[in-house]
Specification:
alpha/beta; five-stranded mixed sheet; 20% strand; binds zinc ion
Length: 316
């Protein structure tokens, strides 16, 4: 008979859906994942989530006190409905909160995945006991969540801020958001790959398998073109982070996401850019760090969503 209470966690992305169990200390006790296969429909995906969560509950030997969800946005955190998400065609207005609440007879809460990541840092990561935190996820895109005084910052009419799309070079390439040279279009992982491809000999052996990670690996091995690309990426990341320091002067900025798995390569230039260009705020009072929550961060974030919603904020 299970005695320990823990939080069910679900992370819905365009490629995969992860489900797992997180304990009261933010530790991931069980992890399962399945392809999203959005074309098979929302109901089929929820059936797979149901099975994965039950399997995880059994393996971790816990009872669930609730379920938190992080979902690629836009989502409506109040109604629990999915918005018009590019990576989830046909799922608009589907409601995973209502669906899982019915399946498990538990309270369920959902936020977009960038906000879930920010709540994870506020609850169990670098933002613990801090008043102001900005968490930036750099991967296929750039998303961010802002936590002030223990609460998520929300825009007018519930709209989500899009820090990833603030412009850092108005002569830069066009983004789908409508702007030229926004942070995402210049600093997301695929932008590194595109720039690197344009500077490599056509048809080279590594051309087709390039990723942000392989570029970082090449740079570590001393490849001159890759080292220049890492420096270029570091500069773009640094300008964006410096803008956040100047605009918000937060206590903590946490950087996560796949690109930041190589944070050690980028961080010196990011820090130097902040200290060189943020002359009107006390930039040394802002801690800039990479996430310490590891690869389980999205599920830990989902659990934090439930905890903050139903157990109250823990502002210091
Ligand atoms: Zn954009």
């Amino acid at each position: 008979m299970a005695t320990e209470q823990a939080i069910g966690a679900v992370d819905i992305g365009g490629t995969k859906i992860a489900a797992g169990i997180v304990d009261a200390n933010g530790c991931l006790l069980a992890y399962r994942e399945t392809p999203t296969a959005a074309h098979e429909g929302f109901d089929a995906a929820m059936d797979r989530v149901h099975a994965m969560l039950n399997d995880a509950i059994n393996s971790a030997d816990v009872e669930l006190c609730g379920i938190g969800i992080g979902c690629t946005g836009p989502v409506d955190p109040v109604s629990g409905a999915i918005g018009a998400v590019e990576f989830l065609p046909g799922w608009k207005d589907c409601n995973p909160v209502g669906c899982l609440a019915e399946m498990f007879k538990l309270q369920v809460a959902m936020e977009n995945d960038a906000d879930a990541a920010a709540l994870a840092e506020a609850e169990w990561g670098a933002g613990r006991n801090k008043r102001s935190l900005i968490c930036v996820t750099v991967g296929t895109g750039i998303g961010a969540g802002i936590v002030l005084d223990g609460f998520l910052y929300r825009g007018a009419s519930g709209s989500h801020q899009e820090i990833g799309h603030h412009v850092i070079d108005c002569s830069g390439p066009k983004c789908f958001c409508g702007a030229n040279g926004c942070w995402e279009v210049l600093a997301r992982g695929p932008a590194m790959v595109e720039r690197m491809r344009n500077r490599m000999p056509a048809g080279g052996p590594t051309q087709s398998s390039l990723t942000a990670k392989t570029i970082c690996d090449l740079a570590r091995a001393g490849d001159a073109v890759a080292k220049r690309e890492v420096e270029r990426e570091s500069n773009y990341l640094g300008i964006g982070v410096a803008n956040l320091v100047t605009l918000f002067a937060p206590e903590v900025i946490v950087l996560g996401g796949n690109v930041m798995l190589s944070a050690d390569l980028f961080m010196p230039t990011i820090q130097a850019t902040v200290h060189r260009t943020c002359g009107l705020v006390d930039s040394k009072a802002t801690t800039i760090t990479s996430t310490s929550l590891g690869s389980g961060a999205p599920l830990i974030g989902a659990a934090a969503v439930w905890r903050r919603r139903f157990e109250g904020a823990r502002a210091s």
